[in-house]
Amino acid sequence: MDFHLLGDVRDIEPIAANLSIRERKTLMVRFGGRRWRKLKGVATVRFPNGEVHLAELHWYEAHGIGKRKMKIKRYLD
Q: What is the reported pTM?
């Protein structure tokens, strides 16, 4: 990640679960886990240059593995 979260992620919604995820096999090989979910949410993020933005984030998560591959999809401010 090339940004830092400032606070918690809110308005979390599932986008896809298990077999609906295109990258499921890659995630299982790289990180393990079984039931992967793709989620989205909103958070305030800070970049290395000091800029702070409200952004929509997408990430993958599995039980016992936690969040992986978090990325910014768009800025909301």
A: 0.85
